[in-house]
## 1
Amino acid sequence: MRFLGVDIGSRHIKLALVVDGALVGYTGGENSFDPLARCRELMADLPADRVMATGYGRQLLELADDVLTVTEIKAFARGAAHHFPGCRTVLDIGGQDTKVISLDETGRVRKFEMNDRCAAGTGKFIEVMAASLGWSLDEFAARAAAAADEVKLSSMCAVFAESEVVSLVARGVPREAIAAAVLRSVADRVTALAARLPLTEEIVFAGGCARNSTLAAMIEKNLGRRLLIREHAEFTGAVGAAFLARDEALRAGAELTSQTGEGVTV
């Protein structure tokens, strides 16, 4: 059987396909003003026996197409535990929220902390700050890593922080230093969130912001621990949803017959 996981984020939609208990690939694209239509468009080329949706807009598929749904917490925990079976802590900086998830020795969610009330410390915050400095996200991370000095952002609010960034640019502060300050503020927020939980290794950094090596290095320094980061970390939630769809089928006693995993790219 083919199991499809769909992670409907505020900025991107990610899909992962599991066939015969094996992850066979990923695909996805940017979200749009019509998330449901965009989901259906992306799913059209990936026929599946069962679908599980997660993420910011998962209810859209549940209400329109009666698709099973699961919280991002469970999806990220399952996906991270698939890639790293010894995983005990998951960090995810999403487009709209930041999560730290603590797992028990069996991979089940033990406790979690989430910041979903403020844009500061999220992926969207980084995106807006990068645009304010005139850089792409990749260039933003690279320039931050090359900063000779670092300033400190005093604003804790994303709106005021953006104004502060504009003000720093006007004062002639090097953009590299400002970029480093932005990532430092995000790293500090994630670290403060993680401090509320028992921080147990192995620690997995999942989600799209895990691709920002400068941010990852700052978090590692704050925590004094090494982070495990997998290529295509942004698909962790979709991978978890796909495996949870399979878990659900196994519990229901479905016969998992063999099929191919055509139609996806890795």
## 2
Amino acid sequence: MAEVIKIKKGLDIRMNGQAELIYVKAPRARTYAIKPGDWHGLTPKIIPKLCDEVKVGTPIFYDKYHPEIKFTSPVSGILSSINRGERRRIIEVVLEDDGKDTAETFMQGDPSEMKREQIVENLLNSGLWPLIRRRPYTVIAKTDEVPKSIFISAFDTAPLAPDFDFLLKDSEADFQWGVNALRRLTEGKVHLNLDGRYPSVRTLSDIKGVEVNRFSGPHPAGNVGIQIHKLDPINKGEVIWVVQPQDVIAIGRLFKTGKYDPSVVVALTGARVEKPQYYRTIRGTEVAPILENQLKEGDNRVISGNVLQGKQIDAEKGYVGCFDSQVTVIREGNYHELFGWILPGFKKMSVARSFASRWLTPRRKFDMDTNYHGGKRPFVMTGEYEKVLPMDIYPMQLLKAILVNDIDKMEQLGIYELDEEDLALCEFVCTSKTPVTKILRDGLKALRKEMEE
């Protein structure tokens, strides 16, 4: 058994609303959507016209600057609408499902016996290539580059995160096929990272062709960025690819069956949900069928993803993000608390022992809302970020280098290894309520423009 790598820094945010380990088949949605905003740096060009018929796996749009990278339909039906936002930016490409699941066919066969070019071509044609993202920058992988290694994090430590052991059970064979395909894409290792707290029940530990690593500790131990930092740090000029576990299964099923299988499992979580549980559904589904008869009365916020890094979506018209295995519902914090700062705070979470709950009931779970409980203050050194970031990086100095657009300093301070999810806890604990993750993304955009465009 691999040695467990212990992460000491971090923070587990204890919240009510963990999904019960029950699978439920979600009602079939009327429409599904691909959201170009799920990928950084993507400029989509639509291929079919409105009301054109499509099959599962039919190309819907491609990347303007990399036409070989296609995005395909998860259902059969018609292209019903293209929803645009500010400056006519495409935010959703909506497909109306006909329920027939008519599918395109692609290359089928054992990827272990295929050439690398054949695997790349099959992934591009099927629309599964965009599921492979590259670090640095967390953008879609380039087809003409060979990464030094590929990382798969098969556990998540974010608040109310789904149990990947439960989510991936009975899919070991498809997962193995997916790993076989990924092995052909790199000359280095494929790292499969597991939760070190449960060594005896991890069925994925028997997967062949990977280097199994185990991690334990508080969030963000499950973040792939932290795992890369501990096992194979990224230096200037180096590239690592990252694939999520459910996407590995989709890749495996493509080579096993010759068809694009868009089925995924999503955990419905949060204190504002009547019965948190797992749903079998289709990638890009409308969230309304999942939330039917599930929301408690009151003003709720629905988030595709977790509370630290997810995106707010509409409960009636929103769609689950491509990379999200979780939908979270919490209470809106649109209320004012008179003299809240002086109250003992028995029901409030505190990182810095400011409230009584921190020392009277340290294991308590909370019904958290969207209130900031604070306001903007000067951006000064406090040492808060360093307590929750288990990396040899100075986050405060890095953020200030980004704010003044000092490219050399950004490189020296390790920006290549970071993604927004790695600094999400820094934003959560920040006394000054600084938009840490937005600043980091701005820095990554500036660096990519300087280095690659």
